[in-house]
Design goal:
There is one protein chain. This protein has 23 helices and 29 strands. The longest helix has 19 residues. It is of the alpha/beta class. Strands 3-2-15-14-16-17-18 form a 7-stranded mixed beta sheet, sandwiched between helices. A 5-stranded parallel beta sheet has the order 5-4-6-9-10, with helices on both faces. A 4-stranded antiparallel beta sheet has the order 22-23-25-26. A hairpin with a 2-residue loop joins strand 7 and strand 8. One of its GO terms (biological process) is positive regulation of insulin secretion.
Amino acid sequence: MVTVRYKLHCLLVLLLVSGTLGGQANRNRGHEKQTNSFRKAATGFYQTLSNVFGEDNVRAVQKFFSRMTERFVFGVDVLVETVWRIWTDLLDVLGIDANYNELYQWSVNFYPEFWGEFWDFSGIVYSQTYDEVVDRSKSIADIPEWFKGSRLNYAENLLKHKENDKIALYAAREGKEDVIKVTFGELRKDVALFAAAMRKMGIKTGDRVVGYLPNCIQTVEAMLAAASIGAIWSATSPDFGVNGVLDRISQIQPKLIFSVEAVIYNGKEHCHLEKLQSVVKGLPDLEKVVVIPYVSPKEKIDILKIPNSVFLDEFLATGKVGDQSPQLEFEQLPFNHPLYIMYSSGTTGAPKCMVHSAGGTLIQHLKEHILHGNTTSTDIIMYYTTAGWMMWNWLITAVATGASLVLYDGSPLVPSLNVLWELVDRLGITILGTGAKWLSVLEEKGLKPCETNSLQTLHTILSTGSPLKPQSYEYVYKNIKSNVLLGSISGGTDIISCFMGQNVCIPVYKGEIQARNLAMAVEAWSEEGEPVWGESGELMCLKPLPSQPTHFWNDENGSKYQKAYFSKFPGVWAHGDYCKINPKTGGIVMLGRSDGTLNPNGVRFGSSEIYNIVEAFVEVSDSLCVPQYNKDGEERVILFLKMAKRDMFSKELVKRIRDAIRLALSARHVPAFILETLDIPYTISGKKVEVAVKQVIAGKEVSHRGAFSNPQSLDLYRNIPELQNF
């Protein structure tokens, strides 16, 4: 029953006129809360049935559904599938379109009611319930408080599953044959020890704890321990250089940092201690450095030059009480209590420090995992990510569903291109997430996992980080697995979640993200601030959401926050992305960052529209499309091509690309120059950096290079002869 939970929620909105199940769930949690919004949402539907069948007959159907859903609550969920089939047949007869869009519109129009119902539906663990979901009179720019009065703990919700012997975490690493397994029982015990050691050194609610760590088990344990205390967790991955790390974590003044001595990537060992030593020197408030032996045994690691440093085993020993393991304790905190500090890319200035709440992160992620992903305790989920990318935070919350997580550290292409697919077969992974770029690389290499791997357990492939190209959809369904759900998802670190993404109930259309997510009031707007459909526009969010940042760190009056999201269109969230919403399918095409939007000759379009055409050419390995301006403000488009092989760039290729763009888009989309480049700049999280290149070709300096994976590539765009004297 792949979609039972999701279908049940649709039934709740469309069918339960009486609100029976919602009322019962609330009574079970010790408070009486009427579900008037549910009744209102279904009143018109109820009246339609009454007119057709007679009120007595409809009341009988209503009672039948109430009984079925009550039985579902107690575990007899197989009946819901039968109910759903009967009901959809009935809707077909009536000509009533009970589709996802109906549920979406209800969730947006009645967003406080939606989130209140989902609080019950998701089974969130709390010690004190809420007085109010959210103040409807406040706009998204007012940053309203959510679930006021409630008390809970994020870590407690992730560690609530009592099947001690069930695997919670698998950890796989490049160059290591063994896969480490940690059960839920072991995870709770380890987190308790981490937390006890933190308390022993004086870590308390509100203190900052940092991980300069790879995607490994200890990273999860340290984060959950910090969350159990109410400390605030922040992380960067080991591939960040010293400046990139200090640009971020020096702003938040951490007391404690966890790190490793080295990592393995792309077949090479990268020593980490020298960078760690420099980072520690730049953190005057740091009280302790905990080094985790990761590549080498403790005996071969010298940490004497790092002030206030200890090895992990020495640190954890301080948390023990004699020979006894410490008890796992969870501080009960307000819904809006800070959980994470996340960072903007920092490619054009100092990174912004975004504070995300424990409750907002939890409930938003649960919505995406349970409803949109249909994740259950039978799933084994892997997302290829570093511990510094928001997809790591998103992945970890999935353990709250009882699912098992796979942590992978290393290159996704070493020792073979099949390394992740082999892991899918070995561990029985059901949901695999990755960056869109990885799928493009596999396509370029001609890899066909369907011929080399079973992939029998895999039912979902997720992609994010950059727009998924239309040809990548074809590649996945033809060469990876034909009956998988390919879910392109999109959101951002700013909301630590997704505005839009996968959906188990509707079709996948090539080149489109399936749908806007529930309760995410997303539209595309023109420059005049009007909604546009089927046209390119600015991605806007019109109504509050629980996972928006509660504030920015060191932004006392909130001016940085307001400038970041609400300066373009006051009162509504401008996300900084450019997109197009298909009015027929409801799907979304992401078109790149709006700060990199191109507008030559009055035609406004996103760079991804060019990439989707250009990168279909076999000669092209990668591309970058940016605007160039002259002193009069006139704009022209410059397209840079990184070739699959050095000798492939030619006038004939340039002509074919120009013709393809003209045919697919228009003559006004054709770049003024198409030039060859040896490299394309990317952030460490795998995103193209268009804005920085735009600055370089304008003769400006890019001082903040710590977020780039290849910062030297920026110098390739300086003083290009063809671009002078414009």
